Amino acid sequence: MAQATQRSSATIDLRQARRGRVARIEVRWKEGFDDPLAAALLRHAHEMGLAPSAARSAKVYLIEGDVSDEQLRSLVEQLLVNPVVEEAFAGAAPTPAGACTVEVHPLPGVMNPTALTVAQQARELFGAESVDVATGWRCDVVGLSQEQAERVVRTAPGGLCNPVVHAILREPLWPEALPHGRPREPRVQRVQLRGLDDEQLLRLSREGHLFLSLEEMRAVQAHFGALGRDPTDVELETIAQTWSEHCVHKTLKSTIRYECPGESRIDFAARPGVRVEGDGVVVVDNLLRRTIAHATHRLIEEGLDWTLSVFEDNAGVIAFDEQHGVCVKVETHNHPSAIEPYGGAATGVGGCIRDILGTGLGARPIAATDVFCTAPPEARDVPAGCLPPRRILTDVVAGVRDYGNRMGVPTVAGAVFFDERYVGNPLVYCGCVGIMPRSMVRKEAQRGDLIVVLGGRTGRDGVHGATFSSAQLESGHAEEFSHAVQIGNPIEERKVHDALLRARDAKGGPLFTAVTDCGAGGFSSAIGEMGAKIGAEVDLARAPLKYEGLSPAEIWISEAQERMVLAVPPDKLEALQRICDEESVELAVLGTFGTDNAELIVRHGGLEAARLSMAFLHEGLPRQERFARSAATPVAAAQPTGAAPVDLGEALLRLLAHPDVASKRWIVRQYDHEVQGDTVLKPLVGAAGDGPG
């Protein structure tokens, strides 16, 4: 099956590569070299009980634009093909006799970092601006039916294919033109809120993917009732993002009514913000403030002097020495990882890295970590709508691996835990550690500062990602919330990293007064938080877009990755632009911080999309009340059973073989823990390099 498509890049007839405006190039491993993707699919097929006899894979490039044959050949030879081990084929190679073909391509609008890189390199090689690229991969399989081959591809681990973000095709994709967004007139819709009863408010919250409670919907209704109007869709989305569980942690900040049966060893009456009622009921006003935050602030009052920033920024900062501070951020990315494990985990660690970059006036990420909790990999009884636990574990590892390795941040520690209760919603914890000058810990946007966005362009990816965190995960959510899944681009984030730290350390700098990452809630949260005290005025028509056709609401709440928002004094913009140009980072000015009455004003050109009080946006959230009960279960002391003595050696081997205890070398060795050259204590040590460090 290899002979039918064998070519070298020097001899391919590029006239066969074109159909309409699109040239198709396939790149395969040469005969005699291992094909890792095909080998992985064959291995997976055999694990499924199938018996394919052979397979061969190819990378697929679809290149659209005014590119001559000579330029296309140069692109193939200089960028797409490694001539030592690979060969190129122009067009769509015929399916070999006895084989079936499966092709996988990202769905339209899904982030495709490889395609972006190829397009950028083509522009730099030829100076041609009108070049667009799409990529995918193909596999020809012998010995399986078409349906069996598609099932193998669809269920293969490693982030190769997920119908949430990929199209699975039975024949080569070769259109005459690539799909492009269509321009449309920006529109703002009024959402009827006044006059709705409780049932209608809850239906609007659920069907609109707002996921606000009845009390919260009533508060929004009352606010706009007092204004004498209904909200726009942009205003309602802004409130939902800002009040989401992800952005405001409203469960941790809720009032807790705790039933404590019997006598408690804790003196609740002596704690501020806590009152004891009859029948053993303890009421805690704001759980976070009265526990972790209270203990921390009390230590500070008593003389603790190494906490530089706590409970107020993207990450906490503690003193390292007289010149530097260390910041640490950990965050879960559970819901996205349950739907698309590879992308969910990758953007989880990418978001933590951006949080470190957005702490104070910018910290340098120096290490990453992770904790994964899934159902046992061998679990067979998987509920409808859930991915197999082995697939989830393999893909979240691959997601963190690929983002951290390509970003150049070493993953130096982690843990894995298995429990059947994680079958529906895995726990995917990602973390990042950064270091920064102590003089850069504080930040605050000033009136008149420009609102500047750096990095990736805005698309529909990640829309409603923040409010999705407030939803209960159900079997149908994979289809309903596919738009909430983001695909990261670590190369773009690395460029943003370099530009941001250069701007921080520039002569006469920092070149900005505040910075934050554009994560959950997109522009709505980033700009809303930075301008919480002084207001902000934004023009969404200035935002760089991945494609045309986005509505003002989609631009405003999109969680497209690799974007940072800065507050830049006007006289520093030119210097910042120069750095961004040198680092190939796109920069756009969206507006200005500081408005009369501290309002958030959002426009799209001449169309006003939102006008909100910052006070209501950040202080109008009703406090939740939650209930907790302590049910102490007495544990009886173990009694001698008279059973035969346990073979301690055998018991030890069984214990060491348990998935929670067994070696995680297969995970650790996928991570680059040496990049940056600062890792002193290695994750694995010993004569064979496989013992815990």
Describe this entry's structure for a reader.
There is one protein chain. By secondary structure, the protein is α+β, with helices and mostly antiparallel strands. The chain has 3 domains: 3-169, Mth169, Chain: A; 203-285 and 443-632, Phosphoribosyl-aminoimidazole Synthetase, Chain A, domain 2; 306-440 and 661-693, PurM-like, N-terminal domain (60s Ribosomal Protein L30, Chain: A, 2-Layer Sandwich). The chain is 30% helix and 23% strand. The protein has 21 helices and 26 strands. The strands form 5 sheets. Strands 1, 2, 3, 4, 5, 6 and 7 form a 7-stranded antiparallel beta sheet that branches. Strands 18-20-17-21-19-22-23 form a 7-stranded mixed beta sheet. Strand 25 and strand 26 form a beta hairpin. The model is unreliable at 1-10 and 465-484 (pLDDT under 50).
Q: Could you give a short description of this structure?
A:
By secondary structure, this protein is α+β, with helices and mostly antiparallel strands.
Intertermini distance: 47 Å
Mean pLDDT: 89
Shape: globular
Q: How many helices does DSSP assign? A: 21
Level of helix content?
A: 25-40%
- From the coordinates shown, what is the CATH architecture of the largest domain? Alpha-Beta Complex
Stretches where pLDDT is under 50 for at least 5 consecutive residues are 1-10, 465-484
Name of the CATH superfamily of the largest domain: PurM-like C-terminal domain
